[in-house]
Amino acid sequence: MIGKVSGRIDYRGEDHVLIDVRGVGYIVYCSDRTLATLPGPGEAVALYTDLLVREDLMQLFGFPTLVEKEWHRLLMGVQGIGAKASLAILGALGADGVSRAIALGDIAAIKAAKGVGPKTAQRVVIELKDKAPGVMAMAGSLPEAMGEVPAMPDDVIEAAEPAAKPAKAPKPRVRTSAAAQSDALSALANLGYAPAEAASAVAQAAQDAPEAETSALIRAALKLLAPKG
Question: Where in this protein does the record put region Domain I (predicted)?
């Protein structure tokens, strides 16, 4: 699996770029939104990637953030959503917009993407609504996930020496209740909820489940904020 590509842009196409990584060129397909943010030929770039493998085809798809890559992976699991439709949705809404539309059940927003019909948009919302809190929590726990991947320094791109032996990965940090509540509040604010009502819902959710992680708090708060009918 090729999870990330760092190099220099050789050329840009209508729906892809060719990235030169130490003499090897990788064709990476991107959404219109991502392509618009990329630098010109000869400039350094880094993209998180997802590799699609079929019997007669291998394609790399590139994303500026881990959150957007995760949404692509989830969207591709929905019946009727292929790579082209997934990139169309992400290109139209961006990672934050997809999180907001799916969490709020905004079928119209998903349907606005080119080539996505009403039934497919409805299926996306229904199948992925429970996944939204987890992705939103991921955005809060990964600082690099909410911004563009920084361009790699020249010495990293050009270096020929083998990389040093990586250190052991640190043990995952357990998020405190306060940190989880803060991330949940931030996620709800991104969805457009007023600070007061978001804070009230998160506080109630935290009171009901003091040890809940961020994704569980978001899910519980969304249920409290859902219209009663």
Answer: 1-64
